[in-house]
């Protein structure tokens, strides 16, 4: 059973009853009032963090490629995975910070991380804003939501393992399908609708980009397509080893991100709209004192539930915002209900939900069969 970090307050919110369509007004009011001074995205934090993560990641990846010693290759591969994973997850920040907040940061990230990892920022833009919509979170329109806790038990390992193939899929999407799409318009339309969004909802179809974004998206896709072609062609002049090692590291990044995604929510919504508070409680914080979460949920994502309360708050401010809300007399009763101790108990909780539904379904079928027996 998942252990929650609950510290019952002396005085709970007098208005919130826990209904799915009702908000805890004390929590929402406190979230806004206590964090007014934390909204500035600080260039002195963003730039060194992103650049340092990318530099360490690429240096370790290069070392893993050229090393002739297995344990050195594996060690450098782990370092490359964690560093590049952190660098990659700045894509989440790009979706939320104002475009004028950090001049040049979005372009630099795409050149240094997004395009080389075949994950340009447009793959997260637009779609992620739907995920934060009050009316569309957890509904069939949400590209980033599946009711995993309500699905079959086998869906969880499939959900995670499919990430192993993501790097190969991205090479095909940009290095093959994008160039062919210039010659075959239906293929280009399919590529955009189905393979241009970091979505886990298989029914999601992306709409054409807004006029203001079209040129920028085309430039990013062109850059990623050129790099994809270079990656495919590289095997003919430098051999298979660099590509195989890089794909192995990027697959590890994909698995790590998919595990984080698996425990980012409780995935218990059945498709109906939810209040902001209900969305918060369907989402997960893994706050300190544990430090491992900072590796598998970096760039502020260990405070994912808090992020759903305050999506525009920069990642470096989430820790302080968490401390203030966790100590607030009227907000903490609801706020502390979204805190969990780590990935393992969360995976266990979601798996238990799927197994419980399976057992209930078997029992219902058995009862129906018994009633039908003369």
UniProtKB/TrEMBL annotation:
Ranges of Polar residues composition bias in the record: 354-366
GO molecular function, one term: oxidoreductase activity, acting on paired donors, with oxidation of a pair of donors resulting in the reduction of molecular oxygen to two molecules of water
UniProt xrefs under InterPro entries: FA_desaturase_dom, Fatty_acid_desaturase
Domain of life according to the entry: Bacteria
Entry GO terms, CC: membrane
GO process annotations (BP): lipid biosynthetic process
Database matches in PANTHER family: DELTA(5) FATTY ACID DESATURASE C-RELATED, FATTY ACID DESATURASE 2
Protein name per its UniProtKB record: Fatty acid desaturase
Organism listed in the record: Tsuneonella dongtanensis
